[in-house]
Write a structure and sequence with these properties.
The complex is a heterodimer of chains A (about 120) and B (about 120).
Chain A (H helix, E strand, L loop, with lengths): L3 E4 L2 E4 L5 E7 L5 E7 L5 E8 L5 E2 L10 E5 L2 E6 L8 E7 L11 E2 L3 E5 L1
Parallel strand pairs in A: 2-11
Antiparallel strand pairs in A: 1-3, 3-8, 4-5, 4-9, 5-6, 7-8, 9-10, 9-11
Chain B lengths: L2 E3 L4 E5 L4 E3 L2 E3 L4 E8 L5 E7 L5 E3 L5 E5 L4 E6 L8 E9 L9 E2 L3 E6 L1
Parallel strand pairs in B: 2-12
Antiparallel strand pairs in B: 1-4, 3-9, 5-6, 5-10, 7-8, 8-9, 10-11, 10-12
Classes of the chains: A mainly beta (about 120), B mainly beta (about 120).
Chain lengths: ~120, ~120
């Protein structure tokens, strides 16, 4: 298994500002995933971050709004840019295991609860 | 395309009674199936998964799930519910033709409330 930490755990931000969320894993992983969980909703995948390459964004998410860094195999950041109240969500970092078996589960960080005023 | 349906937004059950949280899936090939639980203000915790073999899978905290290929279902069950089981439950799927680096596809979640 992997132990994942996220910073900050929660934040309250003003409209128009940006917040960078950090995700740290206790082991080296190939892929890191960023999800958004809006109030009362399921998890929506924002992007997949592979170390050493540009993140791959899902439909409806763009790099200008959600820039992602992946400088090494244990760390990633997600920035929520030019925030609006609609960005209020829980943001979750997740990792697969280092193996390539498709039966491997993903592990999740505790999440960052963002409120935009 | 892969998808997961959790038809119930909310399930209420009395403590000590059996519980079932429903999940159906759709994949092009054969699936790997997963259940996760999310307690308030926490991330998702892995409960169990179906890979192959016995259709009844046992997981953490006394939970089990039954894979039914003909009904494309993977319902989560527990023989005797506890108040502490109250949480949000997510079913997820991955096509076997993917890899461990392919993200899981999640259902919308079902909120379980166990009443004392």
């Amino acid at each position: 298994s992997a132990v994942i930490s996220q910073k900050p755990s929660r934040d309250i931000c003003q409209r128009g500002t940006s917040l960078t969320i950090q995700c740290q894993v206790d082991s080296q992983v190939t892929m890191m995933f960023w999800y958004r969980q809006q109030p009362g909703q399921s998890l929506t995948l924002i992007a997949t971050a592979n170390q050493g390459s540009e993140a791959t964004y899902e439909s409806g998410f763009v790099i200008d709004k959600f820039p992602i860094s992946r400088p090494n195999l244990t760390f990633s950041t997600l920035t929520v840019s030019n925030m609006s109240p609609e960005d209020s969500s829980i943001y979750l970092c997740s990792v697969g295991t280092s193996g390539t078996s498709s039966y491997n589960e993903q592990f999740f960080g505790p999440g960052t609860r963002l409120t935009v005023l | 395309a892969q998808s997961v349906a959790q038809p119930e937004d909310q399930v209420n059950v009395a403590e000590g009674n059996p519980l079932t949280v429903k999940c159906t899936y759709s994949v092009s090939g054969n699936p790997y199936l997963f259940w996760y639980v999310q307690y308030p203000n926490r991330g998702l915790q892995f409960l169990l998964k179906y890979i192959t073999g016995d259709n009844l899978v046992k997981g953490s905290y006394g939970f089990e799930a039954e894979f039914n290929k003909s009904q494309t279902s993977f319902h989560l069950k527990k023989p005797s519910a506890l108040v502490s089981d109250s949480a949000l439950y997510f079913c997820a799927v991955r096509d076997r033709r993917g890899s461990g680096n392919t993200p899981l596809v999640f259902g919308k979640g079902t909120r379980l409330s166990v009443i004392a």
